[in-house]
Amino acid sequence: MKKPSLLPVICLLVLNQASAAHTRDSGFRKHGIHVMISANRLILAANKNNPANFFYSAILIEPQYNSRRHTFGVGIYRSRNSTTYKVNELPCTENRQSLSMMPTYSYLPVFSRHWQIYTGLSLIYNYADTITTTESDVEVITRRSSVMEKGFSVFARVFYRFNRHVSLGLELPINLTMSVQRIEWQYPLTPSMSFREKSSPVHQGMYFIPSQIFLRLSL
Amino acid sequence: MTKMVISGILLTTLVAISCTKPPQQPDLNNIRLNLPEQPYAYNTLQTQDGIRHLRYEDSSVIDNNKATIGRVLFYDKALSINNSISCASCHSQQNSFSDNVAFSKGFAEKLTLRNSINIVNLFDSRSAGYFWDGRESSIEDMVFAPIANHIEMGFSHIELITEKVGNLPYYKPLFRECYGDDRITEKRMKECLGQFLFSIVSYNNKFDKSLKNRSVLNIEERQGLYTFERHCMSCHRLTDEPPYAWQTDTAKYANIGLDEHDGDKGRNGLYKIPNLRNISKTAPYMHDGRFNNLEEVITHYTEGIKRNPNLSEALGGKDGPMQIYLWGNEKFYLIQFLKALDDDVVIHDPKLASPFK
Description:
The complex is a heterodimer.
Chain A: H1 7-21, E1 31-38, H2 51-54, E2 59-67, E3 70-87, E4 90-111, E5 115-135, E6 140-161, E7 166-186, E8 195-198, E9 202-207, E10 213-218
Antiparallel strand pairs in A: 1-2, 1-10, 2-3, 3-4, 4-5, 5-6, 6-7, 7-8, 7-9, 7-10
Chain B: H1 2-15, E1 44-47, E2 50-53, H2 64-75, H3 87-90, H4 122-125, H5 139-142, H6 145-148, H7 161-166, H8 172-179, H9 186-198, H10 206-210, H11 219-231, E3 246-247, H12 259-262, E4 271-272, H13 294-304, H14 330-339, H15 344-348
Helix pairs in contact in B: 2-8, 2-9, 11-14, 13-14
């Protein structure tokens, strides 16, 4: 993944403006409820087959509450899709769903009338479940794959405030996660062949270019 | 407060996950087999010479009940891991128990490594072994190999095949009728499949009939027979005279032959000589299906053979290659004769057809 070359420049510009505008304090709310929504999907084509990335290709919604410079939120990714295809004329269906919850704390160190920079920490709980069925005249074979991913994320967020209610922002996260995959095959006609297996934990660190734009609505 | 309630409702809505119901298992009792009350006579074949008794690998007469079970097993897709492929998927009756593609699709739609071989008249070629490379010498060892093969039928835990077949309700009455009890064992399954395979025979083509009366063949076919006898018959036997020989015919495509399985590096490229009965129904040809029609095959033997240390003596041996020379219309006549090896009986015989409706 390429490092974002423009990011340091943007950060410097924002910080410069933020420190100058600090005294005006018009971008600061003592208490507030917000909803942050990913305005586009983060699609990492190079890593699209990575099960972990599946979580980050869905839409995030994060309800937030802020008290002065401290913001608490719960990011939620939710995705479902179903694919049907044929293998030797047998209908196969793949139902995939995932749920991610990310309790988040962020701190607002600098802000201005239009710009806000947050740094924060999230806990990551991701769960993806894929059930593949192959239907024939004699049995329905089922393969179920579940991935549980836990970890935390350190991030920086930059928001541009259009007005009191609408902001657009970018996020630069660094994620450290541990994932475990469980696979289960069910052969109803051959129960002895059915099996479950659990993978060894996979640890990985990932960082993402800030290509996902967030829309934040403040009530 | 209102803001909090709105946020709570939003959160709850988002978290709610609806469950997807898995499809129901099919009712196996609804499966009906198209079998006659009395089993077909797999042990005999009506030929122009009268009734011919068909024999199993050990020369015993074929058992009709065992062959009946073998027929069901042969056409049963449940013998593959995902229930998508049966033996008949690659050995279809309409293609004279061969396939019409160079490489057949396996259970996961991967292609097999070799062309599906014609399995008619296995009794006549049994001494040369089974498969293109003759790696199995016993029909009962051969019949489970494609079922366990990771490309073909994918049932890698082959020892569990009896468990699966035992859970299919239509088998137990057949085994009870045949063996006196409904125990389904590997040995019984292999025997039944083998018995059915040995009942797939062709002895009713024009060439067979011409053995008594040559005028059955027209003039072009007789010319072709003459050419065949001179150039082809030393390897491609048309009667039941064992044994079949081994042959290699090219360096270009010879990759793995007998030596893959017996460790004899000196036999690379040697393949079993296939049966030519119903040859016009079994295109494409050769172990890799490289030729689409008979004309291309014959052209290969007249122009295309390459030097190979294992080249058959009949094709020139180490000093080869020795091309076959055909004059005038000989190629055309030869093709006419090869088409006279067609036997529609085996293509349309109901006792060899799928029992699944």
